[in-house]
Amino acid sequence: MIKANISGIGTALGENITNAKIEKDFNLKSGIIEKTTKLQTRYFFKQDEDLEPHILKAINQALQVAKLNLNDISCIICASAINRVAIPYNAAYIHKILNANPIIQTFDINMTCLSMLRAFDIGARLLDIHKHILLVSIDIASLGLDWEKVHTAGIFGDGISAMIISQSETGGIVFSDFQTHSCGYDLCQIKAGGYLYPPQHTKDYQKLGFFEMKGKELFKLTMQVLPKFITQSLKKAKININEISYIIPHQASFSSLAHATKMLKINPEKIINIFQNHGNQIASSIPFALKELFNKNVLKSKDKIMLIGTSAGLGLGLIIWEKP
Amino acid sequence: MIKANISGIGTALGENITNAKIEKDFNLKSGIIEKTTKLQTRYFFKQDEDLEPHILKAINQALQVAKLNLNDISCIICASAINRVAIPYNAAYIHKILNANPIIQTFDINMTCLSMLRAFDIGARLLDIHKHILLVSIDIASLGLDWEKVHTAGIFGDGISAMIISQSETGGIVFSDFQTHSCGYDLCQIKAGGYLYPPQHTKDYQKLGFFEMKGKELFKLTMQVLPKFITQSLKKAKININEISYIIPHQASFSSLAHATKMLKINPEKIINIFQNHGNQIASSIPFALKELFNKNVLKSKDKIMLIGTSAGLGLGLIIWEKP
Questions:
Q1: What is the DSSP string of A152-168?
Q2: How far apart are CA A130 and CA A76, in angstroms?
Q3: CB distance A192–B311 less than 8 Å?
Q4: DSSP-derived pairing of the beta strands B172-180 and B315-322
Q5: Which helix (H) or strand (E) covers residue A51, if one does?
Q6: Which Pfam family is an annotated match for this chain, by its short name (chains A, B) (predicted)?
């Protein structure tokens, strides 16, 4: 397999929104959000905001970091958890706003919060025919939050991310694995958006657009399966946890981050944690955290980074990537 | 790259629905559907019908044809154009109803009508780590049809399809290419289903669930780009059209099938056409047509099959597959 570099990451955020503002807007008890979720602040796009300039900003930033032009890209994968519209697929929209050449291939990959991780794994396999692939996640959690359920709504933030993966001589994905624990299928859902509840034939459609989560059951299942999955993956990869320089977890929640770290006896300094000021940005979480690490300028060639996470489904995913 | 066999296809259909029945139900002029679309009959699932037994039927049929058990499958890709719900992703649902082992990986690929073609191409690249991959498309067009627009609604049919791709010693994908002509992004759409029109914040949401198509513009663009794409692909693949034994087109519409064939001077007997009694089954069209070909028992080893089509986007896709 061709080796994959992550040659550029770009991001775009909406407005910084404090807990105090939300608590005021939704008549919530002062301090309840941080108390319930440990989240201090997050960024939300405005409702009805045109996202096009933000998407282009993230993509152009990624191209700039990678020192590439759009002409160098021959495949665009949209890896958002949520579609823009039901038809056409998302990547065609990204292609359109970029006014891109028709020879640029496009398609979507979806694994909810792990969409970007899965797209990185799939994209890396396509580097035999593409020199550079653009991955994009546009995840606007704020549109589906029910503030009557603070423990669920309070953990999310919006984020648009673009990541360019490129052919490399060295480094690349040294191990990846994914699992599906669909016994947890009902624990996280947005019921609207598909054929199960077609808008034309569904009463009270409005409330089906809210994200629903059975937090306690989800946390329990995650703690049952995630640490084991990580341990088994490291064993299969024949890599000791001490050989991993940094860990980029999906920023699902503060408590799951904290618990998983503890269970695996991982040095907390190795873990990139942006949860408290970004929240769970769905599929954009991992690229945002990875950009945070890149910006620290601490990475050396041959450093091994572990990208891990969970998604609604319940899906699990892990990639060990070696910096070229 | 590992060579890919298509080791089994399974399908499931709803009730056979004649034009006469639709014309009666929707107060349409008798004969108008066939006159407008050339479609004679199609299959629709009942509104609110539980699709689970139908999905399982298609998957079990595919497993039976491939002489495999679910335990032989290590990856499930859902390649539907339309989601079941917004969260979780579709393949987690398929995993759940199969009560599948957690080590089975799952994710979705979406390229609207070309989802199955794109999933075949991607899936083939994953056969280095998976012996057998299950691809599933659940596309229920009937839920989004506006019968006030007969020329659009009249061309669709429902279909569930399952296709198993397997490691092979011989044959496999000899060429594939995809293009994106996003100047046609607005020509086919269902506006509901995503972040652009969140149900909580959108008035008159109901009507956004209908499929809309600018048929004439779409036909014009398709005829501008599709024949050229096919000609260029054959040239790149260094394969003469006479070396292709059969052509499986996406069953987009009768007129586009007829015109493309004529423009490329293809012997119509080589083309599998099930449009008149199935309609456009979205991403399930290609698997249904391919199964029709398989069931004729005419295929010989080394026969080259060309799978081609268009999708909303406008996307183009082509795979030349050699039978092992």
A1: HHTTB--EEEEEEEEEE
A2: 10
A3: no
A4: antiparallel
A5: none
A6: ACP_syn_III
Tokens encoding B258: 């007829």
| Residues B70, B48: Cα–Cα separation, whole Å | 28
Residues in chain A closer than 8 A to B194 (CB atoms): 82-86, 90, 193
Name the residue type at position A277.
N
Mutate to test the interface with A, among B82, B87, B136 (most CBs of A within 10 A): B87
* Single-letter code of the amino acid located at B308: I
Closest CA to B206 of A198, A144, A211, A209: A198
Residue of A nearest to B86 (CA): A193
At the fourth CATH level, which superfamily is domain B174-323? Thiolase/Chalcone synthase (3.40.47.10)
Q: pLDDT for A250-296, tens place per residue?
A: 988 777 777 877 887 888 889 998 999 999 999 999 999 999 999 99
Alpha-carbon distances, residue B257 vs A166, B84, B155, B241, B266 (angstroms): 38, 29, 13, 16, 11
In the predicted model, is pLDDT for residue A119 greater than 80? yes
Q: State the count of interchain CB pairs (< 8 A) between A and B.
A: 273
Contact by Cβ (8 Å): B93, B289: no
- Among residues A315, A8, A311, A282, the alpha carbon closest in space to that of A138 is found at A282
* Among the partner residues B90, B92, B194, nearest to A85 by beta-carbon distance: B194
Note the pTM of the prediction, 2 decimals.
0.97
* B2-169 classified as CATH 3.40.47.10: yes
Token readout for B52 is 């689970």
**A229 Cβ contact list (under 8 Å, min separation 6):** A177, A179, A316, A318
* Residues of chain A neighbouring B182 (CB-CB closer than 8 A): 92-93, 95-96, 100, 102, 106
Q: Is there a contact between A143 and B90 if contact means CB atoms under 8 Å apart?
A: no
Q: What amino acid occupies position A259?
A: H
Got the DSSP string for B122-156? HHHHTTTT-SEEEEEEEE-GGGG--TTSHHHHTTB
Mean pLDDT computed over every residue of chain A: 94
Q: pLDDT 10s per residue in chain B (324 long)?
A: 689 999 999 999 999 999 999 999 999 999 999 999 999 999 999 998 999 999 999 999 999 999 999 999 999 999 999 999 999 999 999 999 999 999 999 999 999 999 999 999 999 999 999 999 999 999 999 999 999 999 999 999 999 999 999 999 999 999 999 999 999 999 999 999 999 998 888 888 888 999 999 999 999 999 999 999 999 999 999 999 999 999 999 988 777 777 877 887 888 889 998 999 999 999 999 999 999 999 999 999 999 999 999 999 999 999 999 999
Q: Map out the domains of chain B as residue ranges.
A: 2-169, 174-323
Count the alpha carbons within 13 Å of B92 in the hemisphere toward its beta carbon. Answer: 32
CA pair distance B55, B160, nearest whole angstrom: 6
Picking from A180, A148, A161, the residue whose alpha carbon sits closest to that of residue A314 is A180
Amino acid at B268: P
